[in-house]
Amino acid sequence: MSLRTWLKAGTSAAALVLAAATAAGAAPAPTAAPDAAAAVVTLRYDASRAVGWESAVAAGVATWNANVSNVRLVAATPGVRAEIVIVATTGWPQATLGPVRPGRQVRVELGAQAVTDGYDKTRITAHELGHSLGLPDTKPGPCSQLMSGSSAGTACTNAVPNATERARVQSAYANGLAGAVRTDGRVLVDAP
What is the pTM of this model? Predict the structure, then answer.
């Protein structure tokens, strides 16, 4: 046998032995664990009793859906129980303080008194939905804080949560339902 043939045969045999040993002793490839941070909690809302507030509800929902990634607000189909019940009232806006979880229920009242006094409907709606998602009032506060509510004045039309407010909602719904906490249950009335 020539040296070249011997080296070729020896190299092939060594490669086979090494491959067999590696396969026998290797742990199975790890399976990807589900990304808990990517879990999204879906909350249904029913605005069928929020007559006159339809566009404000749509804008408020769109604001939250665009600004938080682990909770999603969707319109409930008729006959399906919603987690967030939205109604129009003649008084001041108010809402149950969450964070609401699937299967639980909170109420948002969109009060006409605030609109009569000059407050923006979309800001009111986004603010009250913020309560349902677990955010308390931050009164007094600047217009840049959605949860400052009426303390920002009637000229304020900002309906977008700031970075701190977004982070608090993200934290409340972190890891899907793994970090579930009870709904606070207090009703927050947003009168000046």
Answer: 0.76
